[in-house]
């Protein structure tokens, strides 16, 4: 059956990397159809809203969206459209793979293969309980962690490990200091771990985890953690393997899932054909996995690796002299 996906072309380099990504997907006979929807600055200009109701409806109907980066103009109601989408669709799992790729400017061109599973809806990012005293001298922020939220993210991490043949889940926390929030998260994750005797579970305090990631990243497999730690750690992991041009992310809920590149709209290179399309292509590979098209996702990743290995038409961020579309065509030739 044809699967319709909502396609959001986005702002800045968004349309360029989306065209490149769809070019490759179109070569794969995937039985996908695209429903285009606007969000971000382009939506504000066309429809007077950053997140039009028609876009929300399209995601709700199709349950799957592939999204390019969006600009959230200051003073237009949202602090971030991405955060708003996560909130409205309860996209509780942020899944960020970081894998070594050849011929990148990475410090770890091999042996890193980490998936960070970040709780996406709770913790320090609930947007409530933030206050600044009248004299501007004292700021307060509330964090919220629930057993339900911790349980579903831990379960997501262990299920992902089992489904994808991974061996180990590391629960990252700070329960020694943040005894209430991180403590509840850790206790709940331990409880969930008992249901997965086939998956090794270990625990690591977040500061030690950061040091270990930089010194010996090959020891890690799946990481699961709360919102703020996950935000920081997933970028750290992206940095280990060559930075933003190769970092995809998925935001997954029960009723919808949105797949994206982690990087922003890169206004400095927009419209110049210099953008590396790999992050969004890898986001599309995550989408194919999610749709059960696991072999196709593997083919797409293999084609990206082969193109990097042969240095065929790489974009300038990877030291090549290709452009967004010529890079995509080179990947397409290897599909
Ligand atoms: P935003 O405000 O949307 O977050 P930004 O420019 O502040 O945009 P990023 O878009 O993440 O943040 O870009 C950071 C840097 O990385 C920029 O110099 C940008 O050109 C570069 N960059 C980001 N994505 C890519 C990409 N896909 N290909 C090449 N360079 C990229």
Q: Can you tell me the CATH architecture of the largest domain?
A: 3-Layer(aba) Sandwich
Order of helices and strands: EHEHHEHEEEEHEHEHEHEEHHH
Mean pLDDT: 95
CATH topology of the largest domain: Isopropylmalate Dehydrogenase
Residues in helix, %:
25-40%
- Helix- and strand-based class? alpha/beta
Folded structure, characterized:
With 335 residues, this protein is α/β, with parallel strands linked by helices. The protein folds into two domains: 193 residues, Isopropylmalate Dehydrogenase; 118 residues, Rossmann fold, CATH 3.40.50. It is built from eleven helices and twelve strands. Strands 2-1-3-12-11-4-5-10-8-9 form a ten-stranded mixed sheet, with helices on both faces. Helix 5 crosses helix 6. The two termini are 22 Å apart. The model has no long low-confidence stretch (mean pLDDT 95). The protein binds adenosine-5'-triphosphate.
Question: Layout of SSEs?
Answer:
Elements: E1 3-8, H1 14-26, E2 32-37, H2 41-47, H3 53-62, E3 64-67, H4 81-88, E4 93-99, E5 113-119, E6 131-132, E7 139-140, H5 147-163, E8 168-173, H6 181-193, E9 200-205, H7 206-215, E10 222-225, H8 227-240, E11 248-252, E12 257-261, H9 278-290, H10 294-310, H11 324-333
Parallel strand pairs: 1-2, 1-3, 3-12, 5-10, 8-9, 8-10
Antiparallel strand pairs: 4-5, 4-11, 6-7, 11-12
Helix pairs in contact: 1-9, 1-11, 5-6, 7-8, 9-10, 10-11
The structure holds adenosine-5'-triphosphate.
